[in-house]
Amino acid sequence: MSEQTSPETAGAKLIDGKAFARNLREQTRLEVTAFHEKHAVTPGLAVVLVGNDPASEVYVRNKALETHHVGMRSFMHMLPETTSEASLLKLIDRLNDDPEIHGILVQLPLPKHIDPHRITNAISPNKDVDGLGEVNAGRLSVGLPGIIPCTPLGCLMLLKSELGDLRGLNATVIGASNLVGKPMALLLLNEGCTVSVGHIDTKEPAALARSADILIVATGKNGLVKHDWVKPGATVIDVGITRVPTANGKTKLVGDVAFAEVAPIAGRITPVPGGVGPMTIACLLRNTLKAARMSVGDKGCKESGQKNWLPY
Ligand SMILES: Nc1nc2c(c(=O)[nH]1)N[C@@H](CN(C=O)c1ccc(C(=O)N[C@@H](CCC(=O)O)C(=O)O)cc1)CN2
Questions:
Q1: Which residues is 110 bridged to in the sheet?
Q2: Atom 21, ligand 1: which residue's CA is nearest?
Q3: What is this enzyme's EC (predicted)?
């Protein structure tokens, strides 16, 4: 990745997640072709959306498009908001038993009447390409190989490509969700970082953040992290995406980090948009290929020319 700064970032290097994700998708496309030639199997991804949340509709549409672009099959299930938990579980059972489907993802958030834990945990661990079920989450927590949640995996890929070996670095994760914060903290711990996690009840989150060489922010509170939260030279990964109105009556996307005041202090920083976001779907495609490989007992990697910048 080329060194990139801009007037707004002053000294900080901008981490270009969009470019990284493009390369990752191309690498995945090549590996899907090689996998198909070897096994005559096309990886298939089923995506389930319940309800009409506009942002979720965009994400699942993009998931289907990108699945096709890398040569995989996409199976979309768009269900009404009123879908019961029982009928969603029935659909997941069917998808678990379908040999053409290697990965299953239920888009989050789900409507309030459906328990997300029960749903993600009903997905067969070998098809759980979100890595949110108890088996994959448990494997991550004890340092065993498994399927890793897409956004934390994308953050880790960016960090390793920027910083190389992470061992011994102080990392602070702000936000402790099952989707991002908790798996991110475990991944960093498994990489040898000294990890702190800040959450809603943390007394002095700014001080915790300021101790970090690597600061990951995933709270959904736009502009939370100010200049005095960041150690000079730190690598800042902004996972937040919030759509806010602008003066001209339009909207724009912003992150959890107050970019204009943090970028001059940070050593490296991800922008929003174009940072972590694009990595999420690129990693979903990697996880789907991994699940397809597991289904035929193919360890992949070497013969498919897997690049050394892919840690998983
Ligand atoms: N089951 C899951 N649900 C959700 C996940 C997930 O990993 N699994 N993550 C998020 C939403 N998400 C994918 O589902 C997602 C978020 C953001 C992006 C992205 O590319 N963002 C762009 C901006 C896109 C835009 O213009 O709106 C960026 O940041 O540059 C992709 C996917 C919650 N739900």
A1: none
A2: 277
A3: 1.5.1.5, 3.5.4.9
Q: What is the pLDDT along the chain (312 residues), one digit of tens a residue?
A: 345 555 555 679 999 999 999 999 999 999 999 999 999 999 999 999 999 999 999 999 999 999 999 999 999 999 999 999 999 999 999 999 999 999 999 999 999 999 999 999 999 999 999 999 999 999 999 999 999 999 999 999 999 999 999 999 999 999 999 999 999 999 999 999 999 999 999 999 999 999 999 999 999 999 999 999 999 999 999 999 999 999 999 999 999 999 999 999 999 999 999 999 999 999 999 999 999 999 999 976 544 444 444 445
Residue 243 lies in a domain: yes
What atom of ligand 1 comes closest to residue 241's alpha carbon?
29
Q: How many domains are there within the chain?
A: 1
Closest CA to 254 of 275, 240, 266: 240
The ipTM value here is: 0.98
In the chain, DSSP finds a helix count (H) and a strand count (E) of 10, 11
pTM of the model: 0.94
* Amino acid at site 44: G
The answer to whether 38 is a known catalytic residue is no
Whether 272 lines ligand 1, by a CB cut-off of 6 Å, is yes
Please check if 200 is assigned to a binding site: yes
- Residue 130 falls in the annotated catalytic set: yes
User: Domain containing 173 — which CATH number?
Assistant: 3.40.50.720
Q: How many CB atoms lie within 10 A of CB 1?
A: 15
**Residue 114 located in a structural domain:** no
Instruction: Give the residue carrying structure tokens 């459906």.
Output: 114
Query: Nearest C-alpha to atom 29 of ligand 1 is from which residue?
Result: 277
Say if CB 262 and CB 234 are below 8 A apart.
no
In-domain check, residue 270? yes
Domain of residue 236 covers 149-277
Cα–Cα nearest to 269, from 230, 223, 308, 219: 230
112 belongs to the catalytic site: no
Nearest Cα to Cα of residue 273 among 290, 251, 291, 294: 251
